[in-house]
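Example (one chain per record):
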Amino acid sequence: MKPVLIAGTGNIFFGDDGFGVEVLRRLDTADLPDGVSAVDYGIRGVHLAYDLLGGDVKTLILVDALPMGEVPGTLAVVELDDEALAEITGQSTPLDSHSMNPQAVIAALHAVGGHVDRILVIGCQPATVQPGMGLSPSVVAAVDAAARLAIETATSLIPQPIEKR
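Predicted structure:
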């Protein structure tokens, strides 16, 4: 793994919960700088937690549906600070290979002895997470912007080489 990982998450069988999966599908990996990898994890939260165990990933960028009380399709970048992480990892969340919300991933990672220095979530307000395939129109409209945001966010985290004069 590279130092920055963009991880698309969610369940395509629950409407807008498939947001992260669709963003990763549309993300052009040719636009990723050195040091950044992008993987669609879907509902494989435990797989992501185990991939993070190697310690190579210093920053995790989760792309997921994120209920924020906003208009459906609203995008936000949220950093999980130490207080939020302590609250999440202090919960006794059982390991569930099909649970992919950020809390479950972080709890699973800590349960197996892992750590990531920094965690960001690129979230999109869902319209619905009821059973059914396909994203709502407002969330579909946010997918390309979220893919660009993921690349911009990851690029900003990679140190730029100093030009020699």
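Caption: The helical segments are 19-26, 45-52, 82-90, 102-111, 137-157.
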